[in-house]
Inverse folding.
């Protein structure tokens, strides 16, 4: 197993939980985040989050709010460039909001340490998911996650094999990630995420590059796992089949929509 620096999103180092007494004030923020309808037990809350990229005038998010409950999959729609990927980056702590609050499991996250703790439960399929494949073989790529979580090399490899099997990707195990097709890379990246047994998924355009058969398999896998998720996609049929609620990001605001 190569000794590489841990990448974000499910491949991060262990971070100790903050003591409960440092979480004072969270309840205030939760009470102030009612913009989208949702259940009372939120896994994730974005409360009036604003963000502007440096050297850009127009804000990407302007006091945008959302909630994700434990039994929900929220489909996120929006035009190209509307800020969907930026929204997930902010929720994962890869970007810092200029104002507003982000809470994971009721805990306000402000520092990198807070977000590192939250990301241990998160499986994040980036829009550019190729970054997840950097080992000599796909098997090692997939084993990296559990190894980084502290499992032994043998156990990590066994988990990786099982995950690749369950996704119908065993034939890719010995291949190098760079030699895979776009769709194969997307599925291999998904294996890198699912092997860590995340409690919540962030999926940024997961059906891109997938043929109808692979898309159907992905749909079946995600339906079967039934994990809470934020799912960005322009594939409305995919979202309709998978998600419990939908929202659209437009002009920096998040609004509920029906599909
Ligand atoms: N690092 C950056 N610096 C400056 N501007 C950026 C940066 N990253 C993204 N942007 C801009 O922010 C806006 C939102 O980008 P983002 O990637 O979040 O859009 P998106 O909704 O995910 O689009 P798509 O559907 O094309 O993936 C775009 O106008 C983009 O050009
Ligand atoms: Mg995007």
């Amino acid at each position: 197993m190569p000794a590489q620096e841990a990448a974000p999103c499910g491949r991060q180092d262990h971070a100790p939980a903050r003591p409960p007494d440092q979480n004072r004030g969270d309840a205030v923020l939760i009470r102030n985040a009612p913009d989208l309808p949702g259940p009372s037990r939120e896994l994730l809350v974005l409360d009036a989050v604003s963000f502007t990229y440096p050297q850009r005038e127009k804000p990407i998010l302007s006091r945008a709010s959302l909630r994700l409950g434990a039994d929900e999959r929220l489909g996120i729609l929006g035009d190209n460039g509307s800020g969907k990927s930026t929204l997930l980056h902010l929720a994962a702590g890869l970007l810092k909001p200029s104002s507003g609050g982000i809470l994971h499991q009721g805990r306000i996250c402000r520092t990198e340490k807070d977000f590192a703790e939250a990301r241990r439960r998160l499986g994040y399929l980036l829009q550019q998911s190729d970054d997840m494949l950097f080992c000599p073989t796909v098997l090692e790529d997939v084993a990296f996650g559990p190894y980084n979580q502290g499992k032994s090399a043998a156990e990590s490899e066994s988990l990786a094999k099982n995950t690749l099997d369950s996704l119908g990707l065993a034939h890719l195990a010995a291949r190098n990630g760079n030699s895979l097709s776009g769709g194969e890379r997307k599925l291999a990246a998904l294996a890198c995420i699912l092997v860590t047994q995340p409690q919540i998924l962030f999926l940024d355009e997961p059906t891109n590059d997938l043929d109808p058969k692979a898309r159907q398999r992905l749909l079946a896998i995600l339906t079967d796992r039934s994990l809470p998720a934020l799912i960005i996609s322009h594939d409305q049929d995919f979202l309709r089949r998978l998600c419990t609620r939908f929202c659209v990001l437009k002009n920096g605001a998040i609004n509920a929509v029906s599909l």
In short: Strands lie at 42-51, 61-69, 73-77, 99-104, 107-108, 122-125, 200-204, 229-232, 245-250, 253-257.
